[in-house]
Amino acid sequence: MLHALAFLALATVALRASRLPWPGRLAPGWPARLLRYAVAQQRVVRRPRGIAHAVFLAAGAVLFAGTLLRAVEHWSGAELRGPAFETAMDAAGALFVGGVLVALVLKPTWTLASLLAVGLTGFLAQALRGDPTAWWLHALLALGTLAAVPVHVLAAPLALVAGTGRPLPEAEPPFDLRDLLARGVFDPPCPPADLRLAQAACTDCGRCEEACDPGISHRLLHGTHTEADVWACTTCAACVTACPILNRPVDAVLPLRRRAASEQRLPERGAQVLGNLARSGNPYGLNARERRVQPGPADLLYWVGCAGTYDPRVQAVVKATVRVLEAGGLRVWTLGPDEACCGDPARRLGEEGLFQQLCLQNLETLARHDVRRIVTHCAHCYHVLQHEYRRFGAEFAVLHHSELLASLKLSLKPRTRTVAYRESCHLGRYHRLGDAPRRALARVAQVEELPEAACCGAGGGRYWFADVPHRAENVAVACPYCLRTLGGKDVAEYLAEALA
Amino acid sequence: MNLAVCVKFTRDVAQIRNTPEDAPLRINPLDETALEAAVRLGGRVTVVTVASQPPPRELVLRALAMGADEALLVLDPAPDALAVATALAPHLGGFDLVLCGEASVDAFNAQVGPRVADALGCPSVTAALALRPDGTALVVDQALEDVIRTVRVELPAVVTVCMEANVPRMPTVLQIMGAGRKPVREVRSDSPGGVEVRSLVAPPTSRRRREVEVEELLPLLGAEGLL
């Protein structure tokens, strides 16, 4: 009878697991991901409720293994349990009940309540050795809870195994313009299994919403967002670094925006920006021929970017960067009118086709000039050239100017002041490059750390279509969007000022 | 309703560096507004253009992707607005409504719309802000100097649309590529120019132009009272 019930419970779990979406691929390094984030609960334990979760999960696993051992003993008749077994089980049981109790106090749920009942009846059955009522009560509760195990327990490990391997946002393109141009047809992709698996794996723990400035990441992941939410996301990836099971709520944004763009539901300024990009290759709609050529050959190509070309404030950053690079003995050249926007605003606005057009056009230009090394002051150009162009065949090396500023041999005036550094989300979070601007800045000033912020508010293309409130912070930044939104000065400007 | 939208492919004035000819072409932004108005009215929309050379395919596809069903390219050297209207008129006979941009950003003559109406012998309404169908007629809000005048016009008619009427939609690259399946017809004609240009001279200026040496400049400017 009990065996039949146990089988039924396990079969239910197996059936539920088999119904989960499966993207059909294994993440590179998936065993390590599973160990770190599911078994060791590396990100779960970042807060008290998470510690309770990790404790009762581990204790529960020990108790489950102990129960299995008993069952095997029962069937085989062999003596498998040593003298320490009961002590270990008692200790695990105590930890289990304690952990569940703490979690239950912090956040009462039915699942936790039933886990507590399982734990307590287990002790009861143990105390009233041989009492069939207590024993059956425990067995039924345990099997029932097992069958009704929250879906995240099944889906989260699966999501860890099936991820793309990069715990960072991925602008997964739904088509490749090169195929389209070759075949002339477009097969719309099916809804991605990754998103459905991520939804099932989500434990509603709330960490992503806490990390998110507009507080929308959870709604975006589950499709319960409003129209405004779709355009509020800064794609800063704070949600991605917060999620204990490596879900990427931010990945839900671009498909939503692509749909809005194709249905003409763009913010008004967004539509204008796309028109400008299509006609003049920059979001301002200014004359493409105003991009100035600095002919090569030189040590490396300076990717000036659209703000660096047309926005006087950012032009000053370019000048400062070039001055410092030249002081360090590096000469740069520029493409001039051959340089088009990297495509970041188009992609973040949901115009994937225009992004790919700009990308392929730029790749052709760069290949024609046989470009091997690129430097740029723009965090977003850096991310797009460095990471997003790879899929389309880019092979050049891209440096953020701060990497050179940190390592170049320079003669600088001694440090006299203290400067606060505001991290760029696309450098710090996407590329873990936050160290380079800090090291560059530390050469000329005492660097003061600021509390972590999600984003200046201008990421995700919002600089171009949203009313991002301007602040006047006296900070050092390493990204033109941050510079124009927060104020302050670029790291390169601090170094240029300190050139001896 | 069967609608025609007259579209001109003009130089992108934002991209001019030295001469207009080195700037790329674009759809005249006012014609984009007219096309948007047509698509919002609903019905079958045909884009008609007169050009001496076939316009870039990408631009024709862009117009189709904005919601037109068909494009007609009239290849005609038409040297002026009258000739363009003459070239357009034979192809616009069967439509209930012909929409034009109020003017083109390059020449800004604002003549083609009314001249087409004249050639077709139907009413002309200019500077439309809003268009509403009303039975067999159309109610149009016109943006005049300081007032908005609402008129009712029986169809067929020619209406020119002003810049403030709407924000034209922005088709995606995929939609532009998809528009390749829509029909594009090409016809040739040869309309004579209506206006003969006898001469082109700059108006006389009151000041004499003089070339001076640098040393003479300061005293001269002083004499003119400029220093």
Features:
heterodimer, A: 500 residues, alpha/beta, five-stranded mixed sheet, four-stranded parallel sheet, 26 helices, 9 strands, B: 227 residues, nine-stranded mixed sheet, two-stranded antiparallel sheet
Can you walk me through this structure?
The complex is a heterodimer of chains A (about 500) and B (about 230). Chain A is α/β, with parallel strands linked by helices and about 500 residues long. Chain A is about 55% helix and about 5% strand. Chain A contains 26 helices and 9 strands. Chain A has helices spanning about 1-20, 30-40, 50-75, 85-105, 110-125, 130-145, 150-160, 175-185, 195-200, 205-210, 215-220, 225-230, 240, 255-260, 270-280, 305-310, 310-325, 345-350, 350-370, 380-390, 400-405, 425-430, 435-440, 460-465, 480-485, 490-495; strands at about 295, 300, 330-335, 375, 395-400, 415-420, 445-450, 475, 490. In chain A, the strands form 2 sheets. Chain A has a 5-stranded mixed sheet with strand order 1-3-2-4-5. A 4-stranded parallel sheet of chain A has the order 7-6-8-9. By secondary structure, chain B is of the alpha/beta class. In chain B, about 25% of the residues lie in helices and about 30% in strands. Chain B has 6 helices and 11 strands. In chain B, the strands form 2 sheets. Chain B has a 9-stranded mixed sheet, with helices on both faces. In chain B, a hairpin with a 4-residue loop joins strand 8 (about 135-145) and strand 9 (about 150-155). In chain B, helix 3 packs across helix 4. At the A-B interface, helix 8, helix 15 and helix 19 of A face helix 5 of B.
Number-wise, the strands of chain B total 11
Biggest interface pair, counts:
A-B, 29 and 18 residues
Mean pLDDT across every amino acid position of chain B: 92
| Total DSSP helices of chain B | 6
Mean pLDDT of chain A: 90
Oligomeric state of the chains present here: heterodimer
Structural class of chain B: alpha/beta
Number of strands of chain A: 9
Q: Element order, helices and strands of chain B?
A: EEEHEHEHEHEEEEHEH
Describe the largest sheet of chain B: 9 strands, mixed
The radius of gyration computed from the alpha-carbon positions of chain A, rounded to a whole number of angstroms, is 28 Å
